[in-house]
Amino acid sequence: MPLYEHVLIARQDLSNTQAEGLIEHFSTVLADNGGKVVESEYWGVRALAYKINKNRKGHYAFLRSDAPSAAVQEMERLARLHDDVMRVLTIKVDEHQAGPSIQMQKRDERDRGDRGDRGDRRGGDRGERNDRGDRGDRGERRERDDRN
């Protein structure tokens, strides 16, 4: 059977349990039509790039499935009819990537507090202070002003 990846965006005013209930609902729709969900992830509430139905945020969910195209079409049809689902994206893939998705990997990095190799913010690797030495001597300026 073909392999698919689905991203669902649900309304922001749902609770987390209701959003995760949508994942279960659409997983059972795929299972009832001869497919199976290999993995599902709840990404949480995230900001949208633009307003959708007057919403600025949405609950994101990610599903990896192994299902016939008829099951995927039925799942998409029901998702588009569902009042809580704002958008659905389905992509056919050659193979599923092992491990968590890129979004979950980014979340893990944020949770660990990994800030990368930023160095010290007060001068960094240069080891010098920013004392505005490029302005020159201000004494000359005062002498010019006194002459005028």
From TrEMBL:
<dbReference type="InterPro" id="IPR000529">
    <property type="entry name" value="Ribosomal_bS6"/>
</dbReference>
<comment type="similarity">
    <text>Belongs to the bacterial ribosomal protein bS6 family.</text>
</comment>
<dbReference type="InterPro" id="IPR020814">
    <property type="entry name" value="Ribosomal_S6_plastid/chlpt"/>
</dbReference>
<feature type="region of interest" description="Disordered">
    <location>
        <begin position="92"/>
        <end position="148"/>
    </location>
</feature>
<dbReference type="InterPro" id="IPR014717">
    <property type="entry name" value="Transl_elong_EF1B/ribsomal_bS6"/>
</dbReference>
<keyword id="KW-0694">RNA-binding</keyword>
<comment type="function">
    <text>Binds together with bS18 to 16S ribosomal RNA.</text>
</comment>
<feature type="compositionally biased region" description="Basic and acidic residues">
    <location>
        <begin position="105"/>
        <end position="148"/>
    </location>
</feature>
<keyword id="KW-0689">Ribosomal protein</keyword>
<keyword id="KW-0687">Ribonucleoprotein</keyword>
<dbReference type="InterPro" id="IPR035980">
    <property type="entry name" value="Ribosomal_bS6_sf"/>
</dbReference>
<dbReference type="GO" id="GO:0005840">
    <property type="term" value="C:ribosome"/>
</dbReference>
<protein>
    <recommendedName>
        <fullName>Small ribosomal subunit protein bS6</fullName>
    </recommendedName>
</protein>
<keyword id="KW-0699">rRNA-binding</keyword>
<dbReference type="Pfam" id="PF01250">
    <property type="entry name" value="Ribosomal_S6"/>
</dbReference>
